[in-house]
Structures are given as structure tokens and as C-alpha cells.
Amino acid sequence: MNKLNKNPLISNGSIRLVGTFDTNKIISSYKELGIDVIRFFKGEQNISLYKCEKTGYRFYYPFDSIGDAEFYKDLSLNRENYYSTRWEHLEIIDTFKSDEKVLEIGSGFGAFLNLLKSKNIEAEGLELNPEAIKQCKDLGLKIHNELIDTFSKKNTEQFDVVCYFQVLEHVTNVHEFIKASLKTLKVGGKLVIGVPNSNPYLFVNDKYHTLNLPPHHAGLWNSSSLRALEEIFDVKLESINYEPLYKTYTEFLNAYCRNSNIIISTSLSIFNKIVPKILKKVLCRFIKGRNILVVFRKGAI
Q1: Which domain holds residue 94?
Q2: Residues 6+ apart with CB under 8 A from 90
Q3: 23 lies in a domain?
Q4: pTM of this structure
Q5: Are strands 143-144 and 185-196 parallel, antiparallel or unpaired?
């Protein structure tokens, strides 16, 4: 594998190698989920993880190890509720106004578009998964089988809100993707982004967390890297919220105990047996949950 010298978020921005991953382990992990991902690694022994020095954004390389439409079709068939209504959908929808026009990029099977429809909010979506597109059309939703880069050229400043939930972490060319999405947004409009929260508590001790690796994820975002978008694009951060840890507390605690050192693991297990409610209250207070929801406002060009 050739060494990477391109930063996908900032042109000519410095990057450094921060980790490597054994592809055989990755392939085995996905096999346990019933998904064959051998084709994405093309004989590579390792996948590299790089970090943008300016923003803290981390991303995997080679870029062609990231999933295609067929991969997401397989994933949706093997993972129940993969495209279901999410925390961030319910968190943000009441902030939308009835006279706003909304574009969702990566609409999946139409969970959020359907919520918008139920509130009589005009919306349309972009999606590449053929099965998802069919279901959206069956639901009477306005959906386009089109990339944002192509769509933006015909729809400049047409939307009051542009949103993408659990999408940006799957994108390799993140700068071009965000730039194109902003092109469709009116000046003063809102850009809403929901991504997994790749903070240390959730992922450092679970390096081979299957769905946080290629071909599922292309990049890892946290609050710092999201805030840094203000320095790259003509946007102003309006809000940042985290999914409460209690919503996935049991899953978090099990993974944290399983992947921590023996001292931490034993201590948590003991506290969870003796004072489970207190432990949960403390951890949920000090540790952010697994997803981040940010809202930016597009400024004058």
C-alpha cells in the first residue's frame, strides 16, 4: 500500500498516521455479521488510519476499502432496523418550520422523510441503495437516485435546510461532499449533521468495533473535528448535542468492560453489582453518548 499524502478535508493540510488495522481481523468481524467484505481489501494486509493535524478528523486509507451500494444492501438485510428512525431525527424535527424546504442526503428507507411528510414539511431526498429508493417511492416520498455533486449543479440555493444523518462518516471525499451540500442550501439556511461520536470513551478501548471500520466507515468524527468545519466552510456553528448515554448504556458498559484493562474492567463489574444505579448515573453524567448532532448556519458568500 502506498503512503497517503492527501488530506480529504483540507487541501494541502498536514496528516499523520495514527494506527493500522489487520484486514484479516476486519474480514472475520464482518463475517460474523453475515457479510463478505473480502472484495474491498484487494490483498491489503493492513488498513491505515490517518489524522488531520488541524481538525483532528481521522480517516481510513485506502479509500477504495469503503463500502458500495451493494454492501449497504447486504448490511440492511443482515442488521435489523439499520435504516430506522433515530434519536437525532426526533431531536431535530421539531425545530423545522412548515414553510421550510428540506433536502436529506442519504435518506435510506425514508424514515426521516416520512416524519417530515407527517408534519406537512416539503422534503426530498438523495439515495443510492436501489431497495431503499423503491421503498421511498412506494411510500410516496420524493427521492432521487443521484450523488450530491451532480444534484447540487442543478439545485443551487434551493433549500432552507440540508441534513444528513449517519452519512458523513461513510464519505471519503468529505470536503467536496460538504461543499456540494452547502451549494444547495440558501444563504442563512441550516446544515444539520448527525454522526457517530468517536470519542475515546466509546472507541479507543474497542479498536476493532466492526461497524466503526471499513468498509462501513470511512472517517471518524468528534466534537472537535465538527467544530473545525467553521474554519473551512462559510458556516457558523449554532448548536451541538449528544445522544444521552443512557439510551445505549448496557451496550456501552459491556463493551467498555470487555475491552478495558483488568483493573478498570474488574472495578466496573464490581460497582455494577453493588451500586448499579449510582454507577449508571455517574457514567451517564460524565460520558457523552454514541451520536452527535450539530447545526450550522450558512453565512453570506
Answers
A1: 69-196+225-242+293-298
A2: none
A3: no
A4: 0.89
A5: unpaired
